[in-house]
Amino acid sequence: MRTGIVAAICLALIGGPLWAKLPAPPPPTEEQKVAAAAKAAKAAEAAKKESELLAKYQDLTAEKYKKAHAPKAAAAAAPAPKAAAAKK
Question: Beta-carbon neighbour count of residue 44 at 10 Å?
Answer without folding.
Answer: 10
